[in-house]
Write a sequence for this structure.
């Protein structure tokens, strides 16, 4: 849940937010001495009292395209949301005739993403809902299409957050596929859901192997956006790990250290589905396909055991030394399946390894792959522009030696050190095209809010990937 964001051409009654921008702000505004002092002192948010309520002045720093400057504006938007919440304000109009659109868009991102709430399962959700219900923007310099595209990205991030925040009781693999089908129908995607029988016919042994301990069937969802004016002859394929809950299987996770929030193990799938949602709603002229293998990982039934050998979709045999290294198994099937599309580029996203979190914490995504440096540079530019930063790791051959098996083609487990890389090396085996792996285990789910990244699912990856695909196909 979040406020409605609209563009307006006239002031309305109620709380107004006035923006000042840069050192020359006072020369552009007819303001009181109080306001001039606030601008001079660079006070971020100033209360402007009036008889029937309160308005606000928000001082924005000098704008530049630097990553830190853009992030500072998002954080001001988040701080503004906190002030509005404290004052129990239900509607605001933001009046801007001084800040450029790029600065304004960052401010709105911070404000709107901070306003997100997941209240679906509360019996008193209406009482818990934030008072702020409406944000109107008056800005003659805003391009209406750019404004709508910003809304589409924000909506898609929030959709992804909703999916990650849903517990398994409300989001089995079947339910997740139904959610994606409904979303696809809403935004104009071609959608196909492969059921268990079709997955068995395709011999996707990775996905089926992880599913063996569950009473709920797996799914494999294919989402496609292919407009007539697509600029790429070969599709960009997005692959997302959709483990809707991960107990670790027979290699059971400890709790509460890690299992309690394992509903978030499908955050990679949510990110990729959210990305193609944003691309479709923006009607971007690019051909994109998303592949989402989904299941829960349970220790029941006929669950695979450490030491079992499974056969993947492409015929590769894998010794499963640890059933908690399950994400790479279903991703391997999906990456091999992606070959049929003869893709321009494949990206996968997954909450894949604790090693990635230990290496870089919650502040960035671990990346690696076989795409060329120019492609990786565009990804990094997009990552810093959206402040969904990335750190690139190598895929040296020595890491491949760590996943050799004595009885099968591959082992699903490498050494403890550099585990995010040996996991990536496992995935590389199933590719024969330019490929980038995104290990989002750190930033995908937070145990406390970090400005506009709310507690729980963050929707990480959506903003970065939309920006990246724009740059890649420009």
């Amino acid at each position: 849940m979040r406020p409605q964001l609209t563009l307006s051409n006239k002031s309305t009654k109620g709380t107004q937010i006035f923006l000042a921008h840069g050192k020359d702000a006072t020369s552009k505004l007819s303001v009181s001495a109080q306001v001039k002092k606030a601008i001079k002192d660079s006070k971020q948010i100033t209360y402007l009292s009036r008889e029937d309520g309160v308005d606000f002045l928000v001082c924005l720093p000098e704008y530049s395209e630097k990553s830190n400057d853009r992030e500072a504006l998002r954080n001001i938007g988040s701080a503004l949301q906190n002030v509005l919440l404290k004052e129990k304000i239900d509607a605001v109009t933001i009046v801007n005739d001084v800040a450029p659109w790029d600065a304004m868009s960052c401010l709105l991102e911070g404000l709107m993403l901070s306003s997100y709430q997941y209240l679906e399962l509360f019996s008193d959700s209406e009482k818990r809902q934030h008072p702020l219900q409406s944000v109107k923007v008056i800005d003659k310099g805003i391009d209406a299409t750019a404004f709508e595209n910003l809304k589409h990205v924000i909506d898609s991030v929030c959709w992804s957050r909703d999916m990650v925040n849903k517990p398994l009781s409300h989001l089995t693999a079947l339910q997740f596929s139904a959610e994606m089908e409904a979303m696809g129908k809403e935004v104009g995607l071609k959608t196909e859901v492969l059921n268990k029988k079709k997955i068995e016919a395709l011999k996707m042994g990775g996905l089926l192997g992880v599913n063996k301990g569950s009473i709920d069937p797996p799914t494999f969802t294919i989402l496609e956006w292919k407009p007539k004016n697509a600029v790429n002859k070969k599709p960009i394929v997005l692959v997302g790990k959709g483990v809707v809950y991960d107990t670790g299987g027979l290699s059971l996770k400890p709790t509460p250290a890690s299992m309690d929030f394992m509903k978030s193990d499908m955050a990679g799938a949510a990110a990729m589905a959210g990305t193609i949602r944003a691309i479709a709603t923006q009607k971007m002229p690019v051909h994109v396909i998303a592949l989402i293998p989904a299941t829960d990982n349970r220790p029941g039934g006929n669950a695979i055991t450490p030491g079992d050998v499974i056969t993947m979709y492409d015929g590769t045999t894998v010794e499963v030394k640890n059933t908690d290294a399950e994400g790479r198994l279903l991703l391997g099937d999906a990456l091999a399946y992606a070959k049929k599309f003869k893709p321009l580029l494949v990206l996968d996203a997954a909450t894949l390894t604790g090693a990635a979190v230990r290496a870089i914490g919650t502040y960035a995504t671990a990346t690696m792959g076989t795409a060329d440096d120019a492609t990786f540079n565009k990804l990094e530019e997009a990552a810093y522009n959206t402040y969904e930063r990335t750190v690139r790791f190598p895929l040296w051959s020595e890491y491949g030696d760590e996943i050799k098996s004595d009885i099968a083609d591959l082992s699903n487990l490498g050494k403890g050190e550099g585990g995010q890389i040996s996991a990536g090396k496992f995935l590389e085996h199933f590719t024969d095209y330019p490929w980038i792996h995104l290990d989002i285990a750190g930033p995908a789910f937070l145990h406390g809010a970090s400005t506009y990244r709310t507690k729980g699912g963050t929707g990480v990856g959506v903003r970065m990937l939309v920006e990246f695909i724009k740059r890649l196909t420009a």
User: Anything to note?
Assistant: The chain has two domains: 4-142, 153-472. The longest strand covers residues 288-297.
